[in-house]
Design goal:
TIM Barrel, globular, 424 residues, single chain, 3-stranded antiparallel beta sheet
């Protein structure tokens, strides 16, 4: 019986283990998680979601403080009435953060960065260019374009010296979306080096409408492979979303995939940026605790735990310091909902249930986005007598995907000091 380790991923003549860890923001796919994947020969993602904040947290910089100060000064001068991100500051934050990660890389794998189109930051194209160019100059191995069709993204950096050599990919959830991206890629003569096909069971923001249950990853993968064959285009295709075991991964490889993208299993890894409380919430979750809702101000559906602290919150918008989703007219769906929300007798806003302040809650790790199979995470580890679950290192999860067959999962082996552990 085949195992995932029997296969390899080849991108531009470079050979990898066929595992790509998805880019979970904000700093959920930490540098430690990405570096671990690279060391093991796979591909790990960091995320550029709220990169100035992550850079401040990681490196002690002050990009968000500067933004607020600049905003206050401009408002006092009557120049602007909302905050927008500065190109140079955005570029520098991305460059510093990426350079810091890449300086620590060892092993035969690579580190990519997930860059979302939906982060408008008051000036969508300008700040997107800053984020991309900052990552390139920081030395990133690859860029995965996500959360949008990216019609204009390639043009933004086609003059950059690394435009041709950086590994470049896109995330799509339909063959239609891929066709749109391919058309824009042909206009600058730069086809992607890999394609991630994300299905409806993925975590976080989804590329589907409320009828997401009517779609399945294997069908979408086949449609993408057929389209590429018809067009005579040879590009590695990497499915993601709901690939929970090594056998699941092998099934997709047998269908023609070049690798698999996985993330849900790694949300509970020691190296993942979620706090212990959140990891235990994921491990305690049942299938009924997971929902797909419209709470994200991006307009995309989002899968998360129903007990996510971000839901039904009355957090005041902090767009002066954050404002990653504020457009060039100063609009944010959460800010609008907050402004319209009624107040109680104490003058406090009632909880806002239809939208959430995604910037603030992502910053606080209080938005429990998750994949469909999060309720199965308890099957992958051991419950301790204190009621909590053991948190495994990412290497154990990575190797379980590579070497475990038959749909089974290899449970952690604890040392004698932890004999209090009991099987799930």
């Amino acid at each position: 019986m085949k195992i995932l380790n029997d296969y390899v991923l080849i991108i531009k003549n470079k050979i990898f283990k066929p595992i790509m860890i998805g880019g979970m923001g904000v700093d959920i796919s930490t540098e430690e998680l990405a570096l671990g994947a690279a060391k093991l020969g796979g591909i790990g993602h960091i995320s550029d979601a709220m990169c100035p904040y992550v850079c401040d947290k990681r490196l002690g910089t002050h990009f968000q403080t500067k933004k607020r100060q600049q905003f206050v000064e401009k408002v006092r001068s009557g120049l602007v009435n909302f905050a927008k991100w500065d190109y140079n500051e955005t570029y520098e934050a991305s460059k510093r953060y990426v350079h810091n990660v890449m300086s620590k890389k060892i092993g035969n794998g690579d580190i990519f960065i997930n860059i979302m189109e939906k982060l408008t930051m008051g000036d969508s194209l300008t700040t997107l260019k800053a984020r991309i160019c900052g990552a390139l100059d920081g030395g990133i191995d690859g860029i995965t374009l996500s959360a949008g069709l990216h019609n204009s993204s390639l043009k933004l950096f086609e003059d950059h010296p690394r435009f041709r050599d950086v590994l470049l990919g896109t995330i799509v959830s339909s063959v239609r979306a891929l066709k749109i991206f391919i058309r824009s890629a042909k206009r600058v003569d730069r086809l992607p080096d890999y394609i991630v096909v994300e299905g409806p069971l993925a975590g976080g923001h989804l590329g589907f409408d409320l009828d997401w249950k009517n779609f399945d990853l294997k069908t979408i993968l086949k449609e993408v492979l057929d389209y590429l064959k018809e067009e005579g285009i040879k590009i590695p295709v990497i499915p993601g979303g709901g690939i929970f075991t090594g056998k699941d991964a092998v099934d997709y490889m047998e269908l023609g995939a070049s690798a698999v993208q996985v993330a849900t299993r790694f949300t509970i890894a020691k190296e993942c940026g979620l706090p212990e409380e959140a990891k235990q919430a994921y491990l305690q979750a049942e299938e009924s605790d997971i929902e797909v809702n419209c709470s994200s101000p991006t307009g995309y559906l989002m899968r998360m735990l129903k007990n996510s602290p971000s839901l039904a919150s009355n957090t005041k918008p902090n767009c002066e310091s954050l404002g990653y989703l504020m457009d060039d007219k100063g609009y944010c769906a959460y800010k609008e909902a907050y402004d319209k929300a009624p107040v109680n007798q104490k003058g406090e806003k009632f909880p806002i249930k239809d939208k959430m302040c995604i910037c603030t809650h992502f910053m606080k790790c209080a938005c429990y986005t998750c994949g469909y199979y999060t309720y199965r995470l308890k099957e992958t580890t051991i419950k301790l007598l204190n009621g909590k679950y053991y948190i495994p290192p990412m290497e154990d999860i990575f190797n379980d995907y590579l070497f475990t067959a038959d749909g089974s999962i290899t449970l952690p082996v604890l040392d004698d000091k932890k004999v209090c552990a009991v099987a799930y």
